[in-house]
Amino acid sequence: MKYHLLILVCFLNSFLYSQTQKKNTDSISYYNKLANSNLDKKKYNQAVFYTKKSIDFCQTSGQGENLANQTFKLGKIFYNQQNYDEALKNFHKSVSLFDKVKPTCTKILALHYIGASNTAKGNYDVANVYYQKADSLLKQLKLVDHAEILDYQKAMALKASKNLPLAAKTFHQIVKKPDNPKILKTKTDSYYQLGLIETQLKRNDSALVHFENALDYSIKNNNLSQKSQIILAISRYYKKQRNFDLAYSYLDEHYQIENYILKLKNAKLDLNEYEKFKKTQSINNTLKRESEEKIQLKTYRYSKLVSILAIALISILSLLSLALYKNNIIRNQNNLLLREKNKELILAKNKAEKASKARSEFLSTVSHELRTPLNAINGITHLLLEDNPKKNQLKYLESLKFSGNYLTTFINEILEINKIDSTKVEIENISFNLKELLFNIQSSLKELATANKNYFNLEIDETIPDNLIGDPTKLSQIILNLINNALKFTQNGNVNVIAKLYAIEDETATVYFEIVDTGIGIPEDKLQTVFESFSQGSIEVNRKYGGTGLGLTIVKKLIELLGGEIKLKSEVGKGSTFTFKLDFSINKEPLEVAKEAKPYNDKQLKHKSILLIEDNKINQMITRKMLENKAILCEILDNGEEAVELLKVKRFDMVLMDVHLPGINGTTATKLIREFDKNTPIIALTAISLDENREMLLSFGMNDVITKPFVPDEFYTIIAKFFD
C-alpha cells in the first residue's frame, strides 16, 4: 500500500512539475524575465530575441493589449540603442494595435516616444504633432503627468530646434508646478536646462540662479549623478567669469562625487564577481569529489600534497588579504584627513572672499553716497561760474570746480576697481580701427603734452589690420591712463607710444604696445608695489604731482581681464617703459563708418518742456536752474507714483528720471510709463553703483543715462540728442 502511495505522489509531482515548466517556458512573464535579465547584462540582441518571442506568443494566443505592450517594449529597446528607425517602426505598430483595444497609459508613452525619436532625428515639426497627441490622450484618460515628463520632452525638442525662448517658457512652466516626489527629478533637469539656455544667451547672472536652483532640487532628489552634472556646469560658469578660485572649488566637489559614484559601481561589481566565484568553486568542488571517488586509490599520495599546497595558498591569501585590509584602513584615514584639510582650506578661502566682497561693497556704497553731495558741489559751482561772478570770486570758483572734478575722478576710479574685482565688468567684442583709436587719443592729449613742453610721438605699424574685434573702450582706458602718467611725470622730454604687429595666426592678431617716457622714473624697490591701489613712487612724488594712485592698478587689472600681462622697466631720472601684448580677432568685413556726434546748440533746447522726477531738494534746484538757463520749461515731482499718474494726462518733450526714489524706484516707474507711452524720451539720472550699469537701465525702457555728478556739456548734449 505504501509503495502504491509513493508512486502516486511521484506521478502527481511529475505532472505538476511538467505543467509548471510548460507554463514558465511559454508565457509572457517568462519571456519578459529573460529579456529583462539580458537588458541588465547589456546583451541587447538577446533581449530583442526574447521580446520578439513574447510578441509571437501574444499573436498566437490572441492577446491584443499584451501584444501592443510588448511591441512598445521592443521599440523602447531600439530607442535606448539609438536605433531610431527600428524604434519608430515598432512604436507606430504599437499605437495601431492600441487603436483596436481600450487605450492605456502605454499608448500615451508610445506617442511620446515617437515624438522623442523624431526629435533625435531632427524632425521637430513631426515630433511636436505626436507630443500634442500624447497630451490629448492624457486628458482624454483623465490622467495627470505628475512627473511632467511629456512637457519636459517637448521643451527639449524646442531647445534642439533652436527655439530657445519657447523652450525656456516651457521649462519655466514645469518649475512653477507644486513639488511632489515624482516631479523632483524633472524640476532639477528643467532648472539645469534653463541655466544652459541663459548661458547660451550670455545672461550669466540668470544662468547662475537657475544652476543653484537645480543644485537645491538635486539635493532633495538625492540624485548624485544629477548633482555632479550641475556642479560641473557651475564650475564652468565661474571659469568663464574668470573667478578661478570658485571654479576650482566646484570642480573639486564634482570630482569627489564622481569618485564616490565610481566606488559604488566597483563595490557592486566586486559583489557580482564574488557570486560568480562562489558558483564556480561549488561546481569545481563537485567535479573534484566525483573524480576523487573514481580514482581515490590512485590519487591518495597526491591528495596530501594538494592539501598542503591548498593550505599554503590559503595562508598566503589570508596574509595578503590582511595586508590589503590594513592598507585600505590607512588609505581611508589619509583620505579622511585630506578631505578635512581641504574643507578647512575652502572655508579659509571663502572667509577671505567674504572679506574682499565686504570691502568692495563698502567702497562702492561710500562712492555711491558721495555722488549726491558732489553733484550739488559741481552743479552749484557751474551755475555760479555762468552767473558772471566777480573777478576776486572767479579764482575760488575755478579752484572749487577743479577740486570737484578731481574728487569725481577719484570716486570713478574706486568704482572701476570694485567692478573689476567683483567680476561685474563684461568684455565687449566689437569691430574697431586701432589706428584711428590711437590717433584720437593723441589728439585729445596734445594740450597736456604742450603744457609740460613734451614731444609726444605716435608710431603705428602699418601692417596692423584695419578692422579688429575687441573691447576698444577698455583698451582706450588702458592707453589713456599710461600716456596721462607719462605726460604728467615728464617735463621738457619725450613720450613715445608704439604699436606693432607682434604675430598673426589664422584669424587672430597679436599687437605689441609700448609707452616710453623720459620722465622722473620709478625707484627699483617700488617697481612691484606701483601697481597696487593708492600706491605711488614716493611721498615727495605724491605731494608734487598729486593723483590718486589708482591709475596703474586699473591698467593692470584691465590688461589681465583682456588676457594680457603688463611689464615695467624704469630707472630714476631716465624714465619708464610700460609694455604689454593683447590678442584681437580679425574682422574681414569692412568697418562701418561711425557718425560724428553733432554739437548741440541752444536753439534745440529752447522752450522744450521737461518733467524732472527727483527727491533730493538740492538736486531739484540745481537741475531746474541748469534747464532754465537754456530756456527749458521744467516741472518737478519727487516720487515715481505721481509721475506715472501725471504722464497719463499731460505730455512732455522729455522725462528726467532719478533711479533711486522713495516708493517705487525709477526703473519700475519707467516700466509702468512704457505701458501707455512708448515715445516720450526718458533719461535716467543715477549716481551709478556697483550693481548698476547702462545696459541694465536701458532694458527697463529708458533711452539714455546721465551719471551724477553732472558734467554740464555732457548733460546738455544728451538732452539735445533727442530734440533733433
Report on this model:
The protein is an alpha/beta fold and 724 residues long. The chain has helices at 2-24, 28-40, 44-61, 64-80, 84-98, 105-121, 124-140, 149-160, 164-175, 184-200, 204-221, 224-240, 244-294, 300-386, 391-421, 434-444, 446-451, 472-488, 539-545, 551-561, 602-605, 617-628, 640-649, 666-674, 694-698, 712-720; strands at 430-432, 455-460, 468-470, 494-505, 508-517, 567-571, 575-586, 609-613, 633-637, 654-658, 682-686, 704-707. Strands 1, 2, 3, 4, 5, 6 and 7 form a seven-stranded mixed beta sheet that branches. The protein has a five-stranded parallel beta sheet with strand order 9-8-10-11-12. A hairpin with a 3-residue loop joins strand 6 and strand 7 (575-586). The radius of gyration is 39 Å and the shape is extended. The N and C termini lie far apart (123 Å).
Q: What's the arrangement of secondary structure elements?
A:
Elements: H1 2-24, H2 28-40, H3 44-61, H4 64-80, H5 84-98, H6 105-121, H7 124-140, H8 149-160, H9 164-175, H10 184-200, H11 204-221, H12 224-240, H13 244-294, H14 300-386, H15 391-421, E1 430-432, H16 434-444, H17 446-451, E2 455-460, E3 468-470, H18 472-488, E4 494-505, E5 508-517, H19 539-545, H20 551-561, E6 567-571, E7 575-586, H21 602-605, E8 609-613, H22 617-628, E9 633-637, H23 640-649, E10 654-658, H24 666-674, E11 682-686, H25 694-698, E12 704-707, H26 712-720
